[in-house]
Every structure is written in C-alpha cells, then in structure tokens.
Amino acid sequence: MTRRPKPSGATGLVREDDGVSARDVLEAAPDALVVADEAGTIVRVNLAAEQLFGYAPGELTGKPVEVLVPEVYRDAHVGHRLGYNRRMRRRPMGSGPDLYGLRRDGSEFPVEISLSPLMTARGTVVIAAVRDISARKQAEAERSHLIRERALYAEISRLARRDALTGLPNRTLLVDRVGAAIASAQRHQHKLAVIFLDLDRFKHVNDSLGHAVGDRLLRSVASRLTGAVRASDTVSRQGGDEFVILLSEVRHREDVVVAAGKIVAALAQPHQVDGQDLYVTASLGIAVYDEDGADVHTLIKNADVAMYYAKDHGRDNYQFFTPEMNARIVERQALEGNLRRAIERREFLLYYQPKVDLETGRMIGAEALIRWQHPVRGLLPPQRFVPVAEDSGLIVPIGQWVLHEACRQAREWQAAGLHPVPIAVNISALEFRSKNFLERVRRTLDETGLEPRFLELELTESVLMESVDETAEVLRELKAMGLRLAVDDFGTGYSSLSYLTQFPIDALKVDQSFVRDIAPRDGSPIITAVISMGKSLNQRVIAEGVETWVQVEFLRAQQCEEAQGFHFGRPLAADQFAALLG
Ligand code: C2E
Ligand code: MG
Ligand code: MG
What we know:
Beta-Lactamase, TIM Barrel, 582 residues, 22 helices, binds magnesium ion, 8-stranded mixed β-barrel, 5-stranded antiparallel beta sheet, Alpha-Beta Plaits, alpha/beta, 22 strands
C-alpha cells in the first residue's frame, strides 16, 4: 500500500499567530482527516471527512472515533488505538490492508488510513488521514477475476485440445497443427506426412485383460510413439486405439519410410503393464503432402483409407496412400448396398470342400464355404464380401442363411442315401455373439431335421478369446446339444492356451500358412507342436490348405489325422459334391 506524505510539520500546524489556521491546513489536505485525542474522542475533522462519512458539519466533534469503524472491528480498533498511544506515540503509522470505514447511514467502505501523532498544547492528538479505496478495490477485484477467468479459459482450451487419457493432442489440435504445417510446407517448399495408426486386435486386450490394462497399454503406446518421432512432430490420439502422427517436415518419401520403421520398431518392444509383458502391433496408413492431399482433411482421410488397406493386408504393416485405395472404398460401399439385397435375391450359394482321413484317404467330412453369385461381377469368393458383411453387421443374417442351408443340404443328401458326413460351418464373431445364437442353432436343427452330430461349427481363435467366460458358457451349451466344435485358422490368433484347454473343443484346424511353410526336409516345427498339443488335449488336428505330396507325407509322418486342401479336392458346388459323396 502506498504511503502518502504525512501532514505537514507539527509546529506550523497549530500555531495560530502565523496567519495559517489549523482549520485551513485541515481543509487544504487532499484526504479526509480525523483528529482524535488520546482518549479516542474526535476533536476535529475536515469537510472531506464529514462528506466521506456522511455527517453534517460539526456533528462528529466530541464523538468517539469508533463511530467511524464498523461494529465488528470496534473492539479491535480500541485495542490498536491504546497500543498506538503506548508505543508508537511519536511515530506516524502506516496504513493497513483490509480496513473498513462506517458511514452514518450504516454502509461500509474500504479505506486506507495513515496515522500521525501530533503534540499540542492540550496533549498528544492523532491525525488520521482516511482515503476511500472502493474504486481501487473494485478494479483489483475485477483484475483478479479477469486473471482467474483467463487462466480458466486457458485450462479449458488446453483440455479441449488434449486427450484426457494420454495427454496427447486430440483431433482438434492435430487439425490445427497439420494446417500450420501445410502453410509452412508451402512457404519453405518441403513435404509433410500424416500417419494414421490403429493398433491390431486391441479390442482383444480390452476384452480379455480389462479396460484398466487397456488404458495403461494405450498410455505406454502414446509414450513410445512420442519417443519415436521428433519433438517438432505431433502425436495425437483420435480416440480408441487410433493415433494420428504428423511428421511436420519431410524432404523425401524415403524419410517417411524411415520414420514409419522407427514407429513400428518402438511399438514392437514389449509394453510392461501390471507386471506383465504385452505385445502390440499396429497398422499404419500414410498420406504425404501434397501428392496425397492438399488440405488437412483430405490428408487425414487418405491416411485413414491407407490404414484400412494395411489392415486388409494382414495388419502389422504400413501402406502409403494410392488413389486406387479410394476406388476400393467406393467399391466397398457399393458392395454393401448390393449385399443387403443379396439375401432376398437368393444370390448366395454354398460350396463344399472335403476333409479326408490322412491314413485311409476316406472323406470324413466337408466344410461349407459361401460364394456370392453377383449379378454383374460373377461368382465372388468370401474374401471379397465377408469382411464388408462383418463390418456392416450383415454377416448375422447371412450366417443364419448359411447355417440353415448347410443343414438342409446335409439332411437332403442323407435322405437321398448318400454317404453321411458331418458338415462344418464357419461362424463369425458377430454371429457367435449375437442374441439368440444358441436358440437359432437349436431351431435350425429342428427345422431341418439334421442330427446335431452332423454339424460342426468352426470358430476362429479371436472369437473364442473374446470375453472368455461367456464364450465357455456358449460352447458348453453347444456341446451339450451334441454339436462338434473346431478352432479355425489355429496358430494365427492370440490364444491363451490355458483358456483353450478349458473349452470343450473337438478339433484344431492348423492354419494354411503353416502348412504352406512345410519345408521339404525340415517339415514345420509349429505343425509338429500343434499336433502333439492336440493329441495331449484329445483334440483332432486338421491340416488346412494341403496342396502337395511333400505336405501330405510330412503330416502323415507326424500322425496328423485329417487334412483338407486342393490336393484332396477343391470346394465344389452342391451337385458336384453330391456326385463325390455318391
Ligand atoms: P477357412 O474357413 O479357413 O476356409 C478355408 C479356405 O481355404 C477356403 O477359402 C478354401 O477354399 C481355401 N482352401 C482350401 N484348400 C486350399 C488349398 O489347398 N490351398 C489354398 N490356397 N486354399 C485352400 P474360401 O472358400 O475362399 O473361404 C475363405 C474364408 O472365408 C474361410 O476361411 C472362412 O474364414 C470364410 N468363410 C467362408 N465361408 C464362410 C461362411 O459361410 N461364413 C463365414 N462367416 N465365413 C466364411
Ligand atoms: Mg473354416
Ligand atoms: Mg481356416
């Protein structure tokens, strides 16, 4: 608080013979002045003081100074006054904070007071210079309010631009940064790259290990990504397991290849979460300015398109955007529209591929494989439409049709007196998890009259490993109904063996990729291991995609029981397959 010069020299003030009266001095002072004696009685005030406190001229004289002090502070004021009289007698007092004056009408106002003692013929008096600081207080309050508001705003806008889980920039901030990077790229004639990154099978981590672990893994991924790029680059989280990285200054496309390689390598190191090592891979899509897009949204969108392409190409890889990818997306949308109508139009059909006993060479079963007789494009294999059907949810009604048709066909063949073999039907995750799945299977068997032992369901590991408790329950019910259960594409998923041993599984279908890798002399250690595991768990082992004699011989030597593949027979239309059964 500012100290103002104390009222002028004591001697001059009270001497009446120099032509300047004490009243003149009091009235000339810029502040309200209140003069009180040692007992605290007001002996004089100036006009400014009377106006400030709202009293009529002369009205204050003779009153205790405490009338000018709000009720609550009066006792304290008396104490201070006595103390002042005792110790500070000869020294002027400064002003204190948070002092209040009381007006005659009872209203209070903040004041600043300076006290100065003055010796007079009648003893020591104290002159209090009182200044109303309402306006200043008000301004201060407004300023601090403003400061608080600004800080709040800054915090809100920080939060609005950050992802809460990882603290990384979110989409809003990313869009800003990409915009700024484009401007700078134009000015300095360089490139930039946007990398769209999606973790592979993250949902599986969340489902099997819980969301808390999933969150910690995401944080670990966030810090790996940040560590893998330059400080001037931006790593943002879009939500879920999607991240977008801006490489703000790139000279050549090759620089992006190097950066993508670093990112992939950084993620590949095990992530320590809750004392366990978790492994993740990611699919990356890359769009480079300005060849793959001249504005922020096109760049991000095209990086996203390329990321989907990477997913379709077996995950765990990166892809640069190409214009053909967009064409694929358009095609995909058109496909989805047609797929909706395909059921009513009866455009689906099932092919059947034999499964044979490796020892006897006899056919011991068949797998039903869907085909789409597209009105324009001809016969389409499942890879061309099953992923779209899965994404759009259409796989549920389609799968329902497959199940019904396979059972109906098998029953028809049996009724015709053909060799009865179990038919295997592939079940997608969405179908398996759909409401009333068990009920539908039961009804289908009833309606078609097929004995349950002639129906085998093929489920992939990823289907099984999702919410394992629920899965185990459904599997037990299916088993109780008398169905057979097989794990499809075994070896490509994330199976936890301990779960797998608890499920009532009848057969493991070794994925074709392992069969393909059987080397002429060395065989395949993976197949050897799967076969011995199957035996110890009392499960049949079926080798998929068997195409050559070398493979057949190795499998026989390993005592693999069953096989399926072009070597024994390609998938055939129903009538052709019937001929085979006959
Ligand atoms: P999958 O269940 O693993 O089926 C085996 C696939 O391998 C079939 O492909 C079959 O034609 C092919 N294959 C069989 N032997 C050989 C061989 O010796 N060499 C090679 N290279 N391939 C062989 P397809 O019919 O194209 O089916 C592909 C996948 O589509 C299936 O893999 C299955 O996951 C899915 N799928 C097929 N039909 C259905 C269905 O009705 N519903 C569902 N949800 N998925 C289906
Ligand atoms: Mg299958
Ligand atoms: Mg398979």
